[in-house]
Specification:
Number of strands: 19
Mean pLDDT: 80
Structural class: alpha+beta
Low-confidence stretches: 7-17, 160-166, 178-185
Distance between the termini: 33 Å
Strand order of the largest sheet: 15-12-14-13-17-18-16-19
Order of helices and strands: HEHEHEEEEHEEEEEEHEHEHEHHEHEEHE
Number of helices: 11
Helix content: 25-40%
Strand content: 15-25%
């Protein structure tokens, strides 16, 4: 029998899914420990704090899970699911903590199981990161690339996967404990497919600078047109100038001093040499619809290795950035960061509304506005980073309050929060 009780033993009425027995948390914890080992069952309230949902009301009982179990295989997940049903304990995955639930932390399931060079995809366990996939590709010397959203290299792929980058589940554990191929609604993903890109024979990275804060809507309209003509092989991302300003830059410094725009689009055209030379003028012509927009090739930029386009060129070729935690590190050893990601229809009106909302909330909370927008075929994704001094309780309280406000208020702008999380390492 374990000494540490489950953090929440009294489940509110109506929280048990249909078919669950009356809860027996103590027996459930013992069963979980027998499956994964005592060291991989977390029930101590202080240890559970690291699993707190940053967007949840701190007073809400669901902000922290009742317990956490860390399986290392699909077989252990099956055992946990069966034990949870037997002892009446509801399960959740990170991001779904509610009163009385036990969260499955799948970070130990981090293997890259297969890389298919013909179909350009990888099969991975949910705890694997995009960096793990990249390292396996490099280890095997394969001519394959990854298309990874900003800031996602070290996030477990199974932690709320993005439809743009994750091909779908390859293996599921149903709520009754059975192991199946994809089918059914209530399941835990134990394998997933990550689409890859074949390395093209030629590519040309470029930067389009947009001079005004108000150019966001026009950008979305231009990109939607280029997506229809298949000029972009991946979903393009527009970044606010402060995301690419060098460390130590005065936020009051104008974009011109940084040789950037208020908004900056880093892209690349791929194909053979003839295709590259044909596509780049199409991009330049399309963005000419935005007054003052300028297109730069790498050869047009300063030779400084720290130049924004030269730094971003690595990510455009499917490689992780040199300094993935750069925003956080600007604050020193105590720097911390929370990312809030929202999804909405890919329209200029929605993008403008989300931008105005996030800008206003960040200013009111006393934080720099650090945002990026990714435009898919139909969906628009906004990623807003909250960077703060993690050693200051006051700063963390303001950051968490801002996170909750962004999640809550984005609904009024026609969006929904897809993820709100602390960046790994915080």
């Amino acid at each position: 029998m374990r000494d540490t009780p489950m953090a929440a033993t009294d489940l509110p009425a109506g929280t048990l899914p249909p078919g669950f027995a009356e809860p027996d948390p103590a027996s459930a914890l013992d069963a979980f420990a027998a499956i994964v080992g005592d060291e991989h069952v977390v029930a101590d309230p202080a240890a559970l704090e690291r699993y707190r949902e940053p967007h949840a009301d701190p007073a809400a009982p669901g902000a922290v899970p009742a317990a956490v179990v860390r399986p290392a295989s699909a077989g252990e997940v099956r055992g946990i699911v069966r034990a949870a049903r037997e002892f009446g304990v509801p399960l959740a995955v990170p991001g779904e903590a509610v009163p009385g639930r036990v969260v499955l932390d799948l970070s130990r399931m981090n293997r890259v199981l297969e890389v298919d060079t013909t179909l350009a995809c990888a099969v991975v366990e949910p705890g694997a990161t995009y960096r793990d996939v990249h390292d396996e590709i490099e280890r095997r010397g394969l001519a394959l690339w990854l298309d990874v959203p900003d800031g996602e290299w070290d996030v477990p792929i199974g932690a709320g996967p993005s439809p743009r980058t994750v091909g779908g589940p390859a293996e599921l554990v149903l709520d009754g404990g059975g192991l199946v191929a994809p089918d059914g609604d209530r399941a835990i993903v134990t394998k997933t497919v990550v689409p890859l890109l074949h390395e093209p024979p030629a590519r040309e990275p470029y930067l389009v600078t947009l001079p005004c804060e108000e150019d966001l809507g026009a950008f979305v309209d231009v990109v939607r047109g280029l997506r229809r003509t298949m000029v972009f092989p991946t979903a393009p991302t527009l970044r606010h100038v402060l995301l690419d300003a060098p460390a130590g830059t005065d936020p009051a410094a104008g974009p011109d001093a940084l040789q950037l725009g208020h908004w900056n689009f880093f892209g690349a055209v791929h194909g053979d040499a003839r295709t590259v030379e044909l596509l780049l003028p199409l991009v330049e012509e399309a963005f000419a619809a935005v007054p003052g927009a300028r297109l730069f090739r790498v050869a047009d930029r300063p030779a400084d290795p720290a130049d924004a386009l030269r730094v971003r060129a690595a990510a455009l070729a499917g490689r992780p950035p040199q300094d993935p935690a750069g925003l956080r590190d600007r604050l020193g050893p105590g720097g911390a960061r929370i990312d809030v990601c929202t999804v909405a229809p890919a329209t200029a009106e929605t993008a403008t509304a989300l931008d105005a909302l996030a800008r206003e909330r960040c200013a009111a909370a006393g934080f720099a506005y650090l945002a990026a927008f990714t435009v898919g075929p139909r969906e628009l994704r906004q990623a807003c980073s909250i960077v703060y001094d993690g050693t200051s309780p006051e700063a963390e309280a303001r950051a968490l309050a801002l996170c909750r406000a962004l999640v809550r208020d984005s609904r009024a702008a026609g969006a929904r929060a897809s993820r709100a999380r602390r960046v790994p390492g915080d």
